[in-house]
């Protein structure tokens, strides 16, 4: 009888991946990042543990979009008060805060559980191609 392998927290090895956002569309980039952050690409993946790796995304302002998403896609916030619904177009958000667009896309692709906050701490999004992180692998 074989036993199920459960990794110990001290045994978890975390690698650093780098993704160039200019090579991907937003959804494809976010799904690849979410898989690596969650740890699903590893043999030692365990659903109830945080075994994922770090991901650095460079050139956040150059991510691609298909169709007319820049003009039509909207982000909504609600303050909780009557008349407190705020909308912002994707094009406006890309000008002011392109790193938050990628972060939100990845956030929505990770399961909503207690691990999500800890998993997202390992995502580093950078505008431009210069950063101080030491990267081991390239995300393709």
Summarize the structure.
By secondary structure, this protein is of the alpha/beta class. 29% of the residues lie in helices and 18% in strands. Helix 1 crosses helix 4 and helix 3 (90-96) crosses helix 4.
Structural write-up:
This protein has 140 residues and is of the alpha/beta class. It has a domain of 95 residues: Ribosomal protein L13 (Ribosomal Protein L13p, Chain: A), CATH 3.90.1180.10. 29% of the residues lie in helices and 18% in strands.
Write the layout of secondary structure elements.
Blueprint: E1 16-20, H1 26-38, E2 54-58, H2 69-72, E3 74-78, E4 85-89, H3 90-96, H4 98-109, H5 116-120, E5 123-125, E6 137-138
Parallel strand pairs: 1-2, 1-6, 2-5
Antiparallel strand pairs: 3-4
Helix pairs in contact: 1-4, 3-4
What are the key terms here?
140 residues; alpha/beta; Ribosomal Protein L13p, Chain: A; four-stranded parallel β-sheet; two-stranded antiparallel sheet; 18% strand
Our estimate of the beta-strand percent is: 15-25%
Distance between the termini: 38 Å
> Per the principal axes of the C-alpha atoms, what is the gross shape?
globular
Q: Under the CATH scheme, which class of the domain at 13-65 and 97-138?
A: Alpha Beta
Strand order of the largest sheet: 5-2-1-6
Mean pLDDT: 95
What is the number of E strands?
6
Number of helices: 5
Helix content: 25-40%
Biggest sheet: strands, sense, closure?
4 strands, parallel
CATH architecture of the domain at 13-65 and 97-138: Alpha-Beta Complex
User: How would you classify the quaternary structure?
Assistant: single chain
| Structural category | alpha/beta
According to CATH, the fold-level topology of the domain at 13-65 and 97-138 is: Ribosomal Protein L13p, Chain: A
**Poorly predicted tracts of residues:** none
